[in-house]
Amino acid sequence: MEQLVESLNIDLEQERKDILKKYRRLLRTAKPFLKDNDAKLIKKAFYTSVEAHKDMRRRSGEPYIYHPLAVAQIVVEEIGLGTTGIVAALLHDVVEDTDMGIDDIERLFGKKVAKIIDGLTKISGRFEYGSSQQAENFRKMLLTLSDDVRVILVKLADRLHNMRTLDSMPRDKQLKIASETIFIYAPLAHRLGLYSIKSELEELYLKYTEPQEYRAIARKLRETKNTRDRFISKFMEPIAQDLEAVGLNFILKGRPKSIYSIWNKMRKQNKPFEEIYDLFAIRIVLESPPESDREKAICWQAYSIVTDHYKPNPDRLKDFLSTPRANGYQSLHSTVMSKSGQWVEVQIRTSRMDEIAEKGYAAHWKYKGNDTKVKGNIEQWITQVRETLENGFGDKTAAIEFLDEFRSNLFNEEVFVFTPKGELKVLQAGSTALDFAFDIHSEVGAHCMAAKVGGILVPISYVLNNGDQIEIITSSKQKPNEDWLRIVVTSKARARIKDFLKEENRRYETDGRQLVEKKLKILGMDATAEVMNQLRAFFECKTTTDFFYRIGKGYIPIDDLKRFKRDRDAKDKKAAENGAASNTPPVAGSDGKTLTKYLKQIHGDRADSDMLLIGDDMDKIDYKLAQCCNPIAGDDVFGFVTINEGIKIHRTTCPNAAELMSKHGNRIIKAKWSGKEEAFLAGLYLSGTDRVGLVNDVTRIISNELHINMRGLTIDTKDGVFNGDIKLYVQDTRHLDVLIAKLEQVEGVYNVQRFDTNLSGK
């Protein structure tokens, strides 16, 4: 440790002063709500954490104690938690990093803190060590949700600080952590109402995965700031005068869209920055006594004033006052037409609603009392999460399956429906009558055969609409089948259906296993775990259980095992002929660590020996370019170890990248281009105004000036506007950038963008 301090030329006395400065800032921020012995408890937690981490440093070289102090600061300043949350944040890594146990924490800081630390320790998953058990870790984390949501709030603060300090991490770790953040933590922050944290997590994800585009949008936002400010000021002037005239106290906020949301919109709508018009929203925050009867009334009064001056779009009015979102979010949203012809979103809410919108679940402490079980829609959602989790996700594959389902529900809106007795039920948007039946009770769902909506008979696949009043019709002869899984969308219904099917499926699984073992014996193969896993991969089944079930059901003919043996024998023969048995590790069953070690062996002392060299290593390791994103030389890429198709090279911006990195981190390897000249297929989308000779000018630049071979060209013209797709072979991204720049100079061409060649059009 002393040698490290000396080598980094660290001033220990200055560090000590900085640590105390950060600690005092934390106390100043927390001071307004500290009671009795709270300050002493925080002080004790601080010194406990300092002692526990005294010999530890972060990758950046900073003392490790900076991290828990920063997490505690986020917890109190940005999320709004109290003393218990601060103490838990200061101690969140102590149990994992020292000999101190949960019992010691409980003795020193009480049961509540110990319970939170225990929850955080169980989900600690240190990503830099490469283990991909995150799906199970997320499940454990969510199990704590209905006991004390502060576990997840502290975890989100921890993740936010990790993202803020990602600069010190190597590129491959940055990508893995950023991908995991966008895949699960940002949606979770959204669901808990932590919109400012969700937005920052998204922006930091973009900063590290698409740095050039991030900087370009940020620069354009800075350049247009003065214009936007003038527009907002002029837009709000008449509204502010009328609000003052009727005696309403208010704050006006002009809020530009986040860089991430602008980037997302540009990508989805295939538009440049200049054509994204709704770059900002206006927010009117009204002063009103919390939870008063006047809250909704003054919001609608303000809405009336806004629409006196600007014409609203009737299809864009969203009333979250009467029916708040599941996370407690309340606001009135309207889109109105400005005098200059631009659509502007106006959000109207009270100061209480605004605080809940910014700090989400945590803000309820201020208005509902220090109760970890907040009433309302969010509690219903938390109850649904716990019910889903408690249905048993025993193995890793099941945990990943749960994660997929849970994640798909995080961003979904709700649908509000009623029972025959008038009881309100809130379900995920897109829910069916069968989802509703399972929400009532598992047995009602299992025996559901139809439903009545407004007295009219509808099938179980009927998709619910807001305000529907539903009556479920059951039959003792009805029972769940596999087709039901395609009808339901809620996790609760899916879990219950799977439970009912499990018992029936177990018989098919047993029969299938016996058939496979018998057939393998005839083929002269041992029924080892490795062979079973290879069979599962060969027949593209998610689990070995699923494979046995498909055999038992007859979906996979047992004689197809002969195909597997022939394929396996052919690979073994090829490996023997190439001498690969001694030189090349088998990719199937390998992981990123195994391959990284192998790469270091074959590359020797080279500085980047842990990287796969695309172009040089083909004769040593089986890899291919992924068709989902078609990388070309110069693209930022990574390698993903598949089960039985070798290594796939993906772009870091691939649509599947976030999921692959977050769910299968142990199968990711670093990769880069070797620099060898090679032709890669790329696609360009062009649009603009049509004219005589346009196609000739475009093809002349491609073929004559840059000597690029085209594989295909499609131009479609309608009413003087053209859209075109060109597929061509380029050497690398630099070559492609030169071509794009040249094409953009052609008269009539307004937009040139790259697209993935496996997709039709843009």
Automatic annotation (TrEMBL):
<comment type="similarity">
    <text>Belongs to the relA/spoT family.</text>
</comment>
<dbReference type="InterPro" id="IPR004811">
    <property type="entry name" value="RelA/Spo_fam"/>
</dbReference>
<dbReference type="InterPro" id="IPR002912">
    <property type="entry name" value="ACT_dom"/>
</dbReference>
<dbReference type="Pfam" id="PF04607">
    <property type="entry name" value="RelA_SpoT"/>
</dbReference>
<dbReference type="Pfam" id="PF02824">
    <property type="entry name" value="TGS"/>
</dbReference>
<dbReference type="InterPro" id="IPR033655">
    <property type="entry name" value="TGS_RelA/SpoT"/>
</dbReference>
<dbReference type="InterPro" id="IPR007685">
    <property type="entry name" value="RelA_SpoT"/>
</dbReference>
<comment type="function">
    <text>In eubacteria ppGpp (guanosine 3'-diphosphate 5'-diphosphate) is a mediator of the stringent response that coordinates a variety of cellular activities in response to changes in nutritional abundance.</text>
</comment>
<dbReference type="InterPro" id="IPR003607">
    <property type="entry name" value="HD/PDEase_dom"/>
</dbReference>
<dbReference type="InterPro" id="IPR045600">
    <property type="entry name" value="RelA/SpoT_AH_RIS"/>
</dbReference>
<dbReference type="Pfam" id="PF13328">
    <property type="entry name" value="HD_4"/>
</dbReference>
<dbReference type="InterPro" id="IPR045865">
    <property type="entry name" value="ACT-like_dom_sf"/>
</dbReference>
<dbReference type="InterPro" id="IPR004095">
    <property type="entry name" value="TGS"/>
</dbReference>
<dbReference type="InterPro" id="IPR012676">
    <property type="entry name" value="TGS-like"/>
</dbReference>
<dbReference type="InterPro" id="IPR012675">
    <property type="entry name" value="Beta-grasp_dom_sf"/>
</dbReference>
<feature type="domain" description="TGS">
    <location>
        <begin position="412"/>
        <end position="474"/>
    </location>
</feature>
<dbReference type="Pfam" id="PF19296">
    <property type="entry name" value="RelA_AH_RIS"/>
</dbReference>
<dbReference type="InterPro" id="IPR043519">
    <property type="entry name" value="NT_sf"/>
</dbReference>
<feature type="region of interest" description="Disordered">
    <location>
        <begin position="572"/>
        <end position="592"/>
    </location>
</feature>
<protein>
    <submittedName>
        <fullName>RelA/SpoT family protein</fullName>
    </submittedName>
</protein>
<dbReference type="Pfam" id="PF13291">
    <property type="entry name" value="ACT_4"/>
</dbReference>
